[in-house]
Amino acid sequence: xxxxxxxxxxxxxxxxxxxxxxxxxxxxxxxxxxxxxxxxxxxxxxxxxxxxxxxxxxxxxxxxxxxxxxxxxxxxxxxxxxxxxxxxxxxxxxxxxxxxxxxxxxxxxxxxxxxxxxxxxxxxxxxxxxxxxxxxxxxxxxxxxxxxxxxxxxxxxxxxxxxxxxxxxxxxxxxxxxxxxxxxxxxxxxxxxxxxxxxxxxxxxxxxxxxxxxxxxxxxxxxxxxxxxxxxxxxxxxxxxxxxxxxx
Length: 248
Known about the structure:
This protein has helices at residues 2-36, 41-50, 57-95, 101-115, 190-198, 210-221, and strands at residues 128-133, 141-146, 152-154, 157-165, 173-179, 183-185. With 248 residues, it is α+β, with helices and mostly antiparallel strands. Among the domains are: 19-95, no CATH class; 128-218, no CATH class. The termini are far apart.
């Protein structure tokens, strides 16, 4: 009975990734359909774009969807052709003049900037993965993001910010200011760091700084020596006196 149960669990574990993929895909599709499908508020707006072309509501929806996709494609061509700054500044000028909406737009823009690898050197685009050694190199290390290279001086010490994501959802975490000498650059980009945290460490980091590699190698090859107590000096052994002589 135990062997049958073990075989059944092996089959379930083999199908689990496919089941999770299908379930998540179906959930995302239903979510998109509920907000942008025919009959929804956004779907009615899309349908209204194609009503003037075809009388059928279904055909008008797909025509309107095609128009929106074409507009997005043209916008992408403008961005890739070197007009990114002009397009971005135009959207910023428009959205920042709308109360309340400007706050949501600014937050979403910063979030998208983390994933955007193109464009200019925005502070969020310059975020890079780093190794943070708590207590200095050779101690406990965590893979984090450095939002900015500008240090913060507190008293007589300089600190740099590091953002430590949480696993398996790396969009949360903790912002910690640590001494600058605790931070070393890590190999790979933001996408690699996200993969490490989403996989909960199953996907290993791409590399370590040379100093960290050397410290780990030394720690692995060094054999711990047992502490031995100092030996007490032996008392001199007295020879027995010859026979016939007085011991005193």
